[in-house]
Amino acid sequence: MKSTELVGAIQRSLAELVTYADELRDLDQALGDGDLGITISLGANAVIEALGAVPEDARPSEIARAAAKAFANANPSTMAALVAGGLLAGSKAWADVEDVDVAAAAAFVRAAGDNIAQRGKTQLGDKTILDAIMPAADALVTGADGAAGLEDAIAAAEKAVVETRDLQSRRGRASWLQERSIGLQDPGATAMLRFLQSWQKAAAVVAR
Ligand SMILES: [Mg+2]
């Protein structure tokens, strides 16, 4: 996927992601403060708008950097800052990328996950967005080319999201619930899954 297609695919996928805002708000309400729906909506809409102003000849790394900036500035939450930092780390992984394929997507998601783990002082199993990001990155790295690679990443993220229900929240506001967090699905991990599913829909338009 070249830059011009990339901008459209990101915009369409984020417009789709916003349709999950109520689900994310409800999941976050059960575990935290319920602001995740707003964080995702404001962030996604800010990115859609910002990418409308990106020059035609922008490289994929520049597009990702513009998205990171817009997402960070749209909302002051911790989640927005962590996701934006992840997007920025992903943009650096694309320094030499002209054409975004599964390998490039894998490098992006991995770099974003590593950054979020570091800045959020989070590890796998803490019941956070990382629990969906890392399995998705693994599936993209080892998986098939093209649409099948994305399908594998979605399957891995979906499995991980279901598994978060059995985990105790170790980070953020959700950790205040301690054992009472067990049984509830992690909103951040769910947001990552919904993004991948939204991306699949958006990228299918490009592939046609
Ligand atoms: Mg929250």
From TrEMBL:
<dbReference type="InterPro" id="IPR050861">
    <property type="entry name" value="Dihydroxyacetone_Kinase"/>
</dbReference>
<protein>
    <submittedName>
        <fullName>Dihydroxyacetone kinase subunit DhaL</fullName>
    </submittedName>
</protein>
<dbReference type="InterPro" id="IPR004007">
    <property type="entry name" value="DhaL_dom"/>
</dbReference>
<feature type="domain" description="DhaL">
    <location>
        <begin position="4"/>
        <end position="201"/>
    </location>
</feature>
<keyword id="KW-0418">Kinase</keyword>
<dbReference type="GO" id="GO:0016301">
    <property type="term" value="F:kinase activity"/>
</dbReference>
<dbReference type="Pfam" id="PF02734">
    <property type="entry name" value="Dak2"/>
</dbReference>
<dbReference type="InterPro" id="IPR036117">
    <property type="entry name" value="DhaL_dom_sf"/>
</dbReference>
<keyword id="KW-0808">Transferase</keyword>
